[in-house]
Amino acid sequence: MPGAETFRVAADAYDRHVGRYGAPLAAALIDFAGVEPGMRALDVGCGPGALAAALAERLGAASVAAADPSEPFVEACRAGVPGAEVVAAGAEALPFADGAFDATLSQLVVNFMRDAEAGVREMARVTRPGGIVASCVWDYTGEMTLLRAFWDAASEVDPDRGAAADGGAVMGWCADGELAQLWRDAGLADVHSGTLAVRAAYTDFEDLWSPLLTGVAPSGAFCTSLDDDGRAALHNAYRRRLGVGDGPFELTARAWAVAGTVP
Ligand SMILES: C[S@@+](CC[C@H](N)C(=O)[O-])C[C@H]1O[C@@H](n2cnc3c(N)ncnc32)[C@H](O)[C@@H]1O
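Above are the sequence and the S-adenosylmethionine SMILES. Below is the predicted complex in structure-token form.
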């Protein structure tokens, strides 16, 4: 998986980058999956905790657990969702018993797993028979505006390295139908897929640009790998491609979603 190590950063940098879309995306994923009050749920790859927080709001924190391999994100999720059980673990080896949850969800994680097939099978293992396993990933090649424009700008200023790192090219499970196939291959039943559309607000282009300078996520890592001239060229190309400037604006983002049940 490309770039999982780029999430071992301060949660604040993540929250100001793609984390900005986390709360509305979590609400949409919970509705898409059909999570209902009374269920016990797990958030796999919780990051700083957008989905875990949304689950806690619907189910109560005592009915929510979360896991992520990034220690700073585990700490942030523990602080942000008090009462939830938050553990440091990857999807491929979840420290929970068979059938422990009614619903196991992951948001923007499948493409960062070391072994996505193993991760989804593990998500199914910890979910009871008849329970829900659901996920979403960004539409990197299409309508995730923030990242699509970033990688197009990256390829413009550094054609070889930009194209090689483009999320649309390197991320697995992000084309239409791929997530559903992964779910069926993991043995899940009643698999259905769809799209989730969300938006985020920015005060100006610098509000969008500044978190990338921390190296967060594959986009931030690419940004910090450039020399000063390259980074200035990227800044200008990115801003021009987004068509934004010194005033406030919003961007839309689309994710592919999938859900299935454990036989
Ligand atoms: C794009 S972030 C998504 C975080 C959070 N779910 C959200 O929606 O904001 C990707 C997350 O996957 C986590 N991750 C990386 N490798 C993982 C693995 N093998 N299993 C589970 N999570 C992993 C990262 O630490 C990071 O928190």
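The first strand starts at residue 41 and ends at 44.
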